[in-house]
Each structure stands twice: as C-alpha cells, then as structure tokens.
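WARN retry 2 of 3 for item q-0093 after timeout on previous attempt; input resubmitted unchanged.
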Amino acid sequence: MALIDHPTGGYRFLPGISPYSRGVVSAPGFEIAHVTLERPVPDRLGFEKIREYLGAEGRPVSALCGVELRSPRPFSFEGFAEFNASYAEILRDWGVFVDGVNPVARTNVAPEVAPPEVPSLHGFSYARPAGPGPATFVVAGAGELPEGVLEAGAIIRRGETDPSAIAEKARFVMDLMEARIRGLGCSWDRVTAVDIYTIHPIVALLPTEILGRIGPAAGHGVRWSYSRPPIEEIEYEMDVRGVRAEIRIE
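OK item q-0093 returned
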C-alpha cells in the first residue's frame, strides 16, 4: 500500500490492520521524536500523560504516531481483539484516525520478569516541526505472522521453539521489518534503534540473521527485551526506528 498523509499530524503512515499501522515516517518540515517513560503507567493514565505532554509541546493530539505498551501476559487472539477495540476507541475519540484508518504504529509486549499488573504505557512517538534533515520513522512491532493476518494457524512454525524454528521465525520477522522500512521510503542506514522481544536465546542469531542483515545500523547494536509478544503462541517480535530525538520523562 502507498503511504497516506496525516492531514494534521505531521507524518505519513503505512496502513496495516485495524488496531495499528505498519509504520510512520515524518512529513517534510517535521521529525518524529521518541519518548520513553521512566516507569510504565496504566494505559488510560498513560494516554492522559501523552495528551498533557503534547499540549505542553504545542502539538495537537493528532501528532501522536507511535505507542509502546507493556501487558501483564500475552493475550489470546480473542482477548487481543477485545483489547484493541478499547485502545482504538481512545485514538478515534481523539480524532487521530484518518478516514476511519488507525495511523498509529504500535508495539505491545509482555515482560517475562516483573510485568505490569495492567496494560501500561511504556513510550510513545510524535511528530514535531524540524529543520531540513533526513526523514525519521518508526516501524511497528511484528511477530511471525504474515502481514494483515491475525490467526493462530498462520503462525510460522507454530508450536515449535527449537533453535531452527526460532531462527526461521527471526528471518521471517526480519523480512517484515525490511519490507516496512522500504514501504516508508527509508533504509537500514537510517535506523537508530533495533528492539527484539523474545524469551528465547538470540546470541546465535546475531551474526547472520540480525546484525549481518542490517548494515550500518549494526553499529548501534540491538536491545533484547526478555519479553513475550502480545499474543499466545507467537515467540519472536521486533520493532525498529530511526530518530534523532530520544527523550525520557517521568
């Protein structure tokens, strides 16, 4: 699909499925800034924090273009759909949707150690005015499911967690990341952060399946979060971004 301009947000997005887009990229005259909370807060309070932050920055709520959530445990497919409906309602009420389409990129994972008691906001991204410079972008999280599909039967190597299965899942997810980056009109050489979410060992995958494929971005290394993807039976997830501004707030 072609990129769609957000009329008031300052970014473009690559449509995905109803709960979130596949990724976002800054529009001319804007950049995407990434914000991480020092401590996750329950999602409803988190969205109020986002509203307050954007207001203080002089940006409309429609500038929100990325959300990172942490959940107590992976959802069933049915539970994931229910959660997504509630989440999307907030963005729809804010007027973030474009012609009924959710433009916001999202990652939602379940930490294996010290998970939150309820779904919580970990971070977010927004578009703000900026001078000339290369495009900045955020790619939404993805696990080993084909684009646009939320069905257990479509999981790559479903039910398998041996090293060869995890390697195949990692290759599949890397292919998704590359396709999304290209769809945003960007490339690996502009990536500044690579996040991997799995409870399975990744050391053997680093030389060839991960670092060996990301070119200059390998210089930034990768961040491995010992977490599960948001849906039961999915074992491996990634997201990436390319930004100049990394901000931390209370």
